[in-house]
Amino acid sequence: MKVKAVIFDLDETLFDGDELTQIGLNQAVNAMIERGLNCTLEEGMKKINSIIKENPLKEKFTELAIFFGPLNEDIVEIGKKTYWNSEFNQLAAYPEALELLDSIKSNFKSVLITQGTFMQQNKKIDSLGIRDYFDHIIIPKIGEKKDSFEEVLNSLEINPQEIIVVGDRIDNEIKIGNELGMKSVRLLRGKYRFLEPRTENEKPDFEIKNLRELFDLLNLQKKRKPKIVAIGGGTGLPTIMEGLREYTDNLTMIVTVTDSGRSSGMLRDDLNVLPPGDLRNCLISLSNSDKLMKELFQYRFDNGSLNGHNFGNLFIAALTKITGSFERAIIEAGKILKLKGKVLPSTFDNIHVCAELENGEIIEQENNIIDRNNLEVHLRSPIKRIFLKPSAKANEKALIEIKNADLIVLCPGSLYTSVITNLLVDGMAEAINESKAKKVYVSNIMTQVSQTYNYKLSDHVKKIIKYLDGKLDYVISNNKMPPKDLLDSYKKENAQIVENDIFEIDKLGVSLISKNFLDDVNEKKILWEKKDLLRHNPQKIAKELINLV
Q: Which of 243, 265, 493, 532 can bridge 538 by disulfide, Cβ–Cβ 3.0-4.6 Å?
């Protein structure tokens, strides 16, 4: 395809507008209520979101006013005005957008045509940091977008067939581009992705799910995606990968196999298979399958003879028996879940983690070390050292991935039983130290009573360095104080926020990256089965990690 220019839409095309939409709707509904709309903010937000979900093309503020009627045009207008001029803070472009815009600017004419209020759209452009990528930026008034397309066509003096239009709305930029004889590319993201074409002019020439697909359409050279290896277990490892997969599919997760609790523990004892739970979470985090399939793999039975068992664990255990190999079972499960990356156990040996306490007591198996039902576990003698029983040989494929990595990430999770257990496998620590990759540890937000009671950040880092027996380049730590109610909840379990003792970290020769990395605990996620834990924001962490490579 011969292309000389690319025209982009802005909202939902170059950045995820969902969060901004909710901010704008909240402010607009609130303004309508102050003007006389007869509902609460919660009722108004629930209704307007249902209107948008039913049909994003509806006049949402008019429909809202009618629902809580009688219709008052003044209330509708204040809603529209507030929405189009809503206040927001920093916006982030889609991870692949800046790389794509940079490549396009070097090879084609690039144009941005975005509709909305002049000040608001300019604010978005500057917040995203994309102004310099475009030869022309046009912000037409409502109803004048086609005029802007014709204006660009005349000024560029390019055959329409040599121009590609990229956007998310088939009733807007896609339709206009088609009417003018341009090639059109529909991005299937955002609230308009469910719209079906009503006319021939609303049918795009191409449909893509990710802007990165434009590299192939435009025959652009892609930059090599960084190879990232993440090591850990529990829910910390898949949380980190959830953000990184937006930047690269060159991902490998190396997972501990020492779990002995809940469903995994029962399957170990009953079927003599390696514990599938941590690996299941990792498979889900890299899955490209639909939401229902992910929910199926995470479903946990809550009654009957299967009470406590997870469907995904049972599935992997069954695959192990069918294929005769745990390794083969993980590979086949990955195919079913359409994996974007690799999931590898750190070893295929049937092992348990053991802890020697300061008082000389030996505790065997992860479930006993964590001791979930012991309310006074924090009063137990501290852990002096941990070891594997029996010793274990590293998965050769995991060692190869480590050798070829650009970045190695030791992920948050139970310090001893999710992270350090991987370093105890013969050959793992040596491979990490010999790799030319940068080594990063993402620290926990909170202490864990059974393992890191009263630990500061430097205590976590010292233990990582001890068992790694090598150099750590960076440590990433949260510096945002969580909500008091959640801290109080943790306090009841004798857990506390990890203190950033910066001077001690400096003495260790490790570079500290400390920012607000807290995630929104109100958002339910498929990976989280237990309670509203304080957790890292995957996108914030991923951005820092990508910056390192």
A: 243
